[in-house]
Amino acid sequence: MNASRIVVVGSLAFDNVETPRAKVDLAVGGAASYFAVAASFFAPVAIVGVVGRDFPASALEFFRARGIDLEGLQIADGQTFRWSGRYHENMNVRDTLDLQLNVFADFTPQLPASYRQAEVCFLANIDPALQLRVLSDLHRPRLVAADTMNYWIENAHSKLIELLRRVELLVINDQEAYQLSGHDNIVKAARAIIAMGPRHVVIKRGEYGAIHFSSDSVFAVPAYPLEEVVDPTGAGDTFAGGLMGWLAKQGNLTIAAIRQGMVYGSVLASMVVEDFSFNRLRELDQEGIDKRYRQFVALTQF
Ligand code: AMP
C-alpha cells in the first residue's frame, strides 16, 4: 500500500541557538522544516508555510530532493521568521531570547488544490485560527494531529479548544500538557486532554522520551541516551515527523502503529540533536534509521 500524503502547516525559520557549549546563527529551522524532513523518510510530505526572500535556495533544494512538495510554500517580500533561544546547562530547559515574526505576521495559509485530498495532516505549532483554516480546506482528512505551545494556550484558548475537538492526536510537551489541562500530574493531564477531544495524546518529555495515552492504553518510549547533545532544537518536531510519517506509511491508527511510530520518532529525534539544524538528517539513510531502531529495541527489551 502506498503511504498517505501528509500536509504540514507550521513555521520555517532562521534560528539563533546558544547551548552551554556551542552557538550558531541563522541555522535553518522551524517546526514545519524539521517535521517535513523527518516525515519524508516514510511518506510524501507537502508543506504549507511562508518564508522571506532571504531563505536559502539550498534549503529549498534539499526539501525538494527529499520529495517534499513546496507548492503551498509562499515566498513573500520580507524576511523569514526568526527565533533565538538559549539552552541551560540542563538542556531540557531553554529561554526564548527573541522572536521576529517577519513574513509570518501577515501569513494566511493557502492550500493548493493538489493538497486538498491529503488524508493526513499535521498542524504544527502556529496560531490555532490558522490551524483551523488549513483543516477546513482539507476535503476528508482521516488523521489530524496537532501541536501547540504555551503562548496559544494563554492567548488563543477558545480557538484552541475548538481545534482540539477536531484533532485525533495531540503531540505536545509536558509543560504544555500541564498548562493546558490545569493538572501537574502527567496521567491526569492526559486524561483531561482526552476529554477535550483528541482520542490520543503523545506527551514529549525531552531527554526522558515520550508517553502515549488513549482511553485504554499507555506506552512510554525513552529518549536514546547520548553522550553529547549538540543542539536540542527541533527534537520535538522531528519526533512528530517520524511518528506521523510512520502512521501515514501504515495507513492506520492502531495502538501498535502508534507505538512503532513513537520509536521511529525517537530514532530521528535522537539523531537530529547530534548536530545543528537538520544537518544530521542530510546524510541519513534507511540503514542508519534501522541501526538506531535496533538499538532502541535492545535498550527497552527485558
Ligand atoms: P522544538 O525544539 O521542536 O520545540 O522546535 C523548535 C523550532 O520551533 C525552532 O526551529 C523555531 O524556529 C520554531 N519556533 C520557535 N518558536 C516558535 C513560535 N512561536 N512559532 C512557530 N515556530 C516557533
Taken together, the total number of domains comes to 1
Quaternary form: single chain
Mean pLDDT over the residues: 97
Structural class: alpha/beta
- Going by CATH, the architecture would be 3-Layer(aba) Sandwich
Helix content: 25-40%
Radius of gyration: 18 Å
Q: How many angstroms separate the termini?
A: 33 Å
Q: Tell me the number of helical segments per DSSP (H or I, 4 or more residues long).
A: 11
Largest sheet: 9 strands, mixed
Number of strands: 13
Strand content: 15-25%
Describe the global form. Answer: globular
H and E string: EEEHEHEEEEHEHHEHHEEEHHHH
CATH superfamily heading: Ribokinase
- Catalogue the unreliable spans: none
CATH class: Alpha Beta
What does this structure look like?
The chain is of the alpha/beta class. It has one domain: Ribokinase (UDP-N-acetylmuramoyl-L-alanine:D-glutamate ligase, 3-Layer(aba) Sandwich), CATH 3.40.1190.20. It has eleven helices and 13 strands. The strands form two sheets. It has a nine-stranded mixed sheet, sandwiched between helices. Strand 2 (13-18) and strand 3 (23-29) form a beta hairpin. Helix 3 runs parallel beside helix 5 (157-164), helix 6 crosses helix 7 (186-195) and helix 9 (255-272) packs across helix 11. It is globular, with a radius of gyration of 18 Å. It starts with 5 loop residues before the first strand and ends with a helix. The model has no long low-confidence stretch (mean pLDDT 97). The protein binds adenosine monophosphate (AMP). Adenosine monophosphate (AMP) is lined by residues 11, 13, 15, 29-31, 83, 99, 125-126, 151, 233-237. Adenosine monophosphate is lined by residues 11, 13, 15, 29-31, 83, 99, 125-126, 151, 233-237.
